Amino acid sequence: MVHPITRKPRVTGTPGLALILLVSALLLGQTQPTASAPAGAVIESESRITPPPPPYSFPNGQTLSYDVEWRLLTAGTATLRLDASGSEERVTATADSTGVFSVLYPVHDRLEALFDPRTFCSGRITKHTEEGFRRLDTSIRFDYARHRSVLQEKNLKSGHSKQDENEIPGCVTDVVSGIFYLGSRPLAVGQTDTFPLNDGGKTNDVRGRVEAQEDVKTPAGTFHTVRVQPEASSGVVKSKGTIWIWYSDDASHIPVQMRARMFWGTITFRLARVEKK
């Protein structure tokens, strides 16, 4: 369990909003499937997923809860959790808007992702999305034998279903597991890692650059951290905003803060509490 420099009172609240929405929009750069490539096509890229090096160990059994702020207003909350699930690792995440934001644009999202802890290759991801008037159930399966991602999606309001396939390299991470993948890297200042990330559409290369060490104050306490700037290679938000993730500067590399600076404002995610169970 990560320990802050100065322990502060725990913050209570419900699970919730936009950690996952933010990462999906900014790391991936797009959320809609693109046109499929010819069957059997294989992506060639210099980016790659690297197995977690020793002495890294997965922070299993911890629920990370975040307060979400937009322009000094509380917009919602978010949770992130990692657990062993048989021979796989399971990431679960929730996102809920709160207060006036629940009236203007209600958000209630639930996500689950599974990946191989030996390789960090994602196996599948499922999403239940409630955002405004949208209601979707989505599943994405990564078929490495065919080098394809297989997306199945159902619109719960219209009943319309669709399936889409896109090419992938021999190993990808997903939009949820990617947070922990970055945290598994050594994270030395000046280090850069480039890795493929897929969310059912086009695979994007994401470059994570370790910029500096900083002390960060959150509702859960003040932490020694390393600041990482992930940047997507393409997508609708490329060159239109900047995202940073602050990981605890210890063996666990817990994401204690995230910030996105976009043309419409800045969103900040601050760790509110860590629960072990």
Explain briefly what this protein structure is:
The chain has about 280 residues and is mostly beta strands. It has 3 helices and 15 strands.
Unreliable residue stretches: 6-45
Structural class estimated from helices and strands: mainly beta
Q: What spatial form do the alpha-carbon principal axes imply?
A: globular
Q: What characterizes the major β-sheet?
A: 15 strands, antiparallel
| Beta-strand content | over 45%
Indicate the percent of residues in helices. under 10%
Radius of gyration: 18 Å
How many strands in all? 15
User: What is the end-to-end distance?
Assistant: 11 Å
Rounded average pLDDT: 82
How are helices and strands ordered from N to C?
EHEEEHEEEEEHEEEEEE
Count of distinct structural domains: 1
- Give the helix tally: 3
Observed structural traits:
single chain; 277 residues; mainly beta; 15-stranded antiparallel β-sheet; 50% strand
Report what the structure shows.
The chain is mostly beta strands. The chain has one domain. Helices cover 8% and strands 50% of the residues. The protein has a 15-stranded antiparallel beta sheet that branches. Strand 2 (62-70) and strand 3 form a beta hairpin. Mean pLDDT is 82; it is low at 6-45.
Helices and strands in order:
Elements: E1 6-7, H1 19-28, E2 62-70, E3 73-85, E4 88-97, H2 100-104, E5 108-115, E6 122-131, E7 134-143, E8 148-155, E9 161-167, H3 177-184, E10 192-197, E11 204-218, E12 221-232, E13 241-248, E14 255-262, E15 265-276
Antiparallel strand pairs: 1-12, 2-3, 2-15, 3-4, 4-5, 5-6, 6-7, 7-8, 8-9, 10-11, 11-12, 12-13, 13-14, 14-15
